[in-house]
């Protein structure tokens, strides 16, 4: 049942990303979509582990793409 909540959360985050240009919410939305898959497969996963996995994945995605996103935003501003 948690997968429905994660899916709604992902849709909200994608909607937020549409109205912003910072490319931050998209990584949280991707993490939410991963959680949809994980909670659909592992239906008995405790909520605390879902949150821990979501946060860890979000941080990894955010930090690993931060430099690339900054370069893209800088090029976009120059044009």
Write the layout of secondary structure elements.
Elements: H1 2-19, H2 25-41, H3 47-78
What does this structure look like?
With 79 residues, the chain is an all-alpha fold. 85% of the residues lie in helices and 0% in strands. Helix 1 packs antiparallel against helix 2 (25-41) and helix 2 (25-41) packs antiparallel against helix 3 (47-78).
The SSE order reads HHH
Can you give the helix content as a percent range?
A: over 70%
Described by strand count, sense and barrel closure, the largest sheet is: none
Q: Please state the CA-atom Rg, rounded to the nearest Å.
A: 14 Å
Backbone structural class:
mainly alpha
Strand content: under 5%
Shape by Cα distribution: elongated
Record field, number of beta strands: 0
How far do the termini sit from each other? 46 Å
| Average of the residue pLDDT scores | 91
Uncertain stretches? none
Q: What is the overall number of helices?
A: 3
Which terms would index this structure?
about 80 residues; about 85% helix; mainly alpha
Tell me briefly what this model is.
The chain is mainly alpha-helical and 79 residues long. Helix content is 85%, strand content 0%.
């Amino acid at each position: 049942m948690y997968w429905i909540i994660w899916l709604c959360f992902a849709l909200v985050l994608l909607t937020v990303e549409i109205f912003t240009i910072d490319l931050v919410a998209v990584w949280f939305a991707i993490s939410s979509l991963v959680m949809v898959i994980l909670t659909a497969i592992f239906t008995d996963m405790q909520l605390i582990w879902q949150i821990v996995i979501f946060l860890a994945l979000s941080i990894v995605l955010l930090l690993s793409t931060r430099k690339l996103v900054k370069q893209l935003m800088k090029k976009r501003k120059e044009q």
